[in-house]
Design a protein that fits this description.
By secondary structure, the chain is of the alpha/beta class. The chain is built from ten helices and 26 strands. The structure holds alpha-L-arabinofuranose.
């Protein structure tokens, strides 16, 4: 029989606001992430608005996507913005050397990206090219996007159809500089960062937050090095340091594990792996609290998510994978971690939005399916810009298989913008339901209502033949002695609003 779990939420001690951009997305020129999945072009039979698929854009709008990062990834360090402006039929065709060696038409460039972001009502995050680019090229791109004068670059933007400057909310200098971005040491990158940052100038009211591209697993020292050596002063800004962490069931890049049809051994190891995120963020927070006690520098996990072996028969460079209930629980587990560190983690970007890695949406020709990960983001919408509430699991269960164990339940809570207390719960145990008592200290609770995502199968997923095989269902919890009493199904994620 399942043990009981006890959680205390302190509604009287509000913590930092959970920046909506913690729910950010990432769209790279990779596989069908943009071409086919989002962009079909204006001549396509697939219904579109100025080239962007109506079905996919509609679904993303419903998800309230708060921010999109573009154009990469590794792609960003070979991207030259001038090749993606002007008449589309005259743009140079390149080879996407990182992802499958396919032709890159440059049909989606700066204007198209901002059109998408504006349709979604999303903030924009541009990844600059430090690899094959230069401070000059990045500075000129920013001038092109934000210039208000009659400078040649601002006039060029107008000639290309955009009078009003684009709003650039975030800009990062390079990507994965320790690897595909140039195999640099933190010392080398930090010098280049400082040099470049000095020249990225924009009008005052359109100044993007400037991000230093940081480390990953095995390169955690980048956070320490950057925060110790970049001390913001008048010409040197650093609003955040980024970090990448991917969840591989096997923790082995050669054989990562399958997206569906996996054994329970890989279910539990996936959670074991993904829970490492807590340690990475906790360590970064410690480092930043030491080097930046005034909390000027954020820690942005601008790539995270599951990374499996590609689906059989697909181009290995396209990173196309199915997405199951397990992915939804991975997403929710990470949200619960990010909420805990809301004071430093102001933005994250799941990799990636459509058809690539842990995607929200998969497309095939004119068809589209929403993945369990889409539904996890959907369930957590009330947490965007909510105020985090200290959440303490005072008694938890342990889920064990063989010699691997993980905490049975993970959770977080926040006061939504509507004033309600929202509680999110994940049961990682695929076989046993658990009773969870939530004591919302400071609030009288008479019950809770919300939604659950669960299934009989660990790898429940939607297909083009069965697009609704898994989707959220209504869920409610009762109250006992003023405390919530939640019957949390096996392998489930639940988000409820206390009443
Ligand atoms: O998201 C896929 C790739 O993973 C990105 O291009 C790169 O930054 C990371 O290695």
């Amino acid at each position: 029989a399942a043990d009981k779990v006890e959680i205390t939420v302190d509604a009287q001690k509000p913590g930092p606001v959970i920046n909506k951009n913690v729910y950010g997305q990432f769209a790279e020129h990779l596989g069908a992430g943009i071409y086919g999945g989002l962009w079909v072009g204006t001549d396509s039979k697939i219904p579109n608005t100025r080239g962007w698929r109506n079905d996919v854009v509609g679904a993303l709008k419903s998800l309230k996507v708060p921010l999109v990062r573009w154009p990469g990834g590794c792609f960003a360090d070979e991207y030259h913005w001038r090749e993606g402006i002007g008449p589309r039929d005259q743009r140079p065709v390149k080879v996407n050397t990182n992802w499958g060696g396919v032709e890159e038409s440059n049909a989606v460039g700066t204007h198209e990206f901002f059109d998408l972001a504006e349709m979604l009502g999303a903030d924009t995050y541009i990844n600059g090219n430090l690899g094959t680019g230069s401070p000059q090229e990045m500075a000129e791109w920013l001038e092109y996007m934000t210039g208000e004068s009659k400078s040649t670059l601002a006039e060029m933007r107008r000639k290309n159809g955009r009078d009003k400057p684009f709003k650039v909310d975030y800009f990062t200098i390079g990507n994965e500089a320790w690897g595909c971005g140039g195999n640099m040491t933190p010392e080398h990158y930090t010098n280049l960062y400082k040099q470049t940052a000095a020249f990225l100038k924009t009008p005052k009211h359109n100044t993007p937050k400037l991000i230093a591209s940081g480390g990953t697993t095995g390169h955690e020292e980048w956070t320490e090095y950057l925060s110790a050596n970049v001390k913001p002063e008048w010409s040197l800004r650093m609003d955040a340091i980024s970090f990448h962490f991917y969840t591989l069931p096997t923790n082995d890049w050669k054989v990562k594990g399958l997206a569906t049809g996996f054994p329970e051994k890989e279910w539990i190891s996936t959670f074991k792996q993904t829970l490492r995120m807590d340690g990475f963020v906790a360590d970064a927070k410690k480092t930043l609290d030491k080097n930046d006690p005034e909390k000027k520098v954020g820690f942005y996990v601008d790539e995270w998510g599951t990374w499996y072996d590609v689906e059989p028969g697909t181009n290995s460079g396209f990173l196309y994978q199915q997405n199951s209930l397990r992915d939804a629980l991975v997403a929710a587990t990470n949200f619960n971690i990010f909420h805990k560190y809301a004071d430093r983690v102001h933005m994250t970007n799941i990799a990636q939005m459509v058809n690539v890695l842990q995607a929200m949406i998969l497309t095939k020709d004119d068809k589209m399916i929403l993945t369990p990960t889409y539904y996890a983001f959907d369930l957590y919408k009330p947490f965007q810009d909510a105020t985090s509430l200290p959440t303490n699991i005072t008694h938890n269960t342990t889920y064990t298989l063989g010699d691997v164990s993980v905490p049975g339940v993970n959770a977080s809570a926040a006061r939504g913008k509507d004033g309600k207390v929202y509680v999110a719960l994940v049961n990682t145990n695929p076989k046993e339901a658990v009773e969870v008592t939530v004591n919302v200290a400071g609030t009288k609770v008479s019950g809770a209502k919300g939604r659950v995502l669960t299934s009989q199968l660990m790898d429940a997923h939607n297909t083009f033949e069965k697009p609704d095989a898994i989707k959220p269902a209504p869920f409610s919890a009762s109250a006992k002695d003023g405390k919530l009493s939640v019957k949390l199904p096996a392998k489930s994620v639940v988000v409820v609003a206390a009443e």
